Amino acid sequence: MTSGWQERDGQGKAARFLSAAGQGVLVLFVLLLFFLLNLLPLRLFGFDSVRPPFLLMVVFYWTIFRPGLLGIPAVFFLGVALDAVSGWPLGISALILMGTQWIAMAQRKFFSGQSFLTVWWGYLLISFFALFLQWGVFSLIQHSWLPIGPVAISGVLGAFVFPFAVLPLYLVHKILSAPQELT
Question: What is the CA radius of gyration of the chain?
């Protein structure tokens, strides 16, 4: 509860601003963490470029539970940045992440009232579709079928990692949802 002098003095506004700034820093930190995790290749089963789709997890989860957190421009920028850093043709990841956002937003009402298991299944469907779409586009660019093993392994890894990766996203969601009390 704030007293009148705090509001008139501007301290209430300053506290809300600092609180909002701290929340923004937290969101940026989590995005940067997932962005960097998305860049780390794992060498599994003889494949050099196996990666769980961490950014896809963020876009899917926050589109459902915090839709105002990642707008279309932010998702586009994340995708283009991922392409630029990964050496991929610019726009492929942006298109896939924005498509994921669009599908998740279209199904937001359905997913937001469901159990975690249902949300997980939704993620699995979207993620496998996105990974195979990306594989298809890369195959078209190369004019030959690329090995599908790394894509399948990335999808399976993503399926196993999703429940653990969602934990920090859930915690950020709860922090942002908590009422801010001014002292």
Answer: 19
SS3 content of the chain, % helix, strand, coil (to 5): 75, 5, 20
Q: For the whole model, what pTM was predicted?
A: 0.85
Strand-pair partners of 44: 47
Which CATH number do you get for residue 102? 1.10.1760
* Residue of 154, 178, 123, 166 lying closest to 45 (CA atoms): 154
Task: Give the pLDDT score at 4.
Answer: 44
User: Measured between alpha carbons, how far is residue 159 from residues 28, 52, 141, 167, 174 in Å?
Assistant: 24, 8, 27, 14, 23
DSSP 115: -
How many domains does the chain contain in total? 1
Instruction: Identify which of 118, 129, 132 has the alpha carbon closest to the alpha carbon of residue 162.
Output: 118
Query: Residue 47: which H helix or E strand, with range?
Result: strand 47-50
| Cross-strand bridge partners of residue 105 | none
Which tokens go with 166? 């969602």
* Rounded Cα gap, residues 33 and 146, in angstroms: 29
Residue 61 placed within a domain: yes
Distance of CA 103 to the CA centre of its chain: 14
Average pLDDT, the chain: 86
Residue 71's CB is within 10 A of a number of other CB atoms, namely: 11
